[in-house]
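Hello Y.,

Per our agreement to keep a running log of every chain we model this quarter, I'm adding this entry. I've kept the format consistent with earlier entries: sequence first, then predicted structure.
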Amino acid sequence: MIGSLAWSNYAKSLLRSLVDIVQLELLYIPNGMENGFTNPFTQKFSMTSLEKVLKSGAEGKEVVENGGEVKRREVIVRGVLSVTVISAEDLTPADLMGKADPYVVLVLKKTESKNKTRVVNESLNPVWNQTFEFVVEDGLHDMLILEVWDHDTFGKDYMGKCILTLTKVILEGEYKDTFPLDGAKTGTLTLNLKWNPQPIYRDS
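Predicted structure for the entry above:
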């Protein structure tokens, strides 16, 4: 059985050989246009070139001693995703004083698992440095959604979001990047993502 370390090394070698076909990891849904967004979890959704290679490479063959029968072994890309919400910069003011009380809501698409940061009062450049973990059952077909909101006594105001596929963190193991917020005039979100693989092997 292939161990987690072997899987991690395999993913890194794939990254080096397939760097030219790495496709856009950051997807945007224009504010108010959710109904026009293609659902990536339908059977009609086609995988990126990188995901096809990763998925095909995760399927091996096993020879059975009693007659040489060949079986296919499928690897389910399962693991723990660690997300550190570091900071945001240049957020759009949400009140008449030119300030905001921002916090971030994190959602794992397929399981709808949610977490949120604390509220940082009166800041357009908040720093959180908070880490959250998600158990991911199918990393090739899941997404991480991060929404920034302004906390208000009488409600909350939307301040933008970014949506990430998990392909890059699965291949690299860990990376840090800054992402623009969609649906907002200004603003970026800085994150650190880390992947701890726990693959599941299934004969088919």
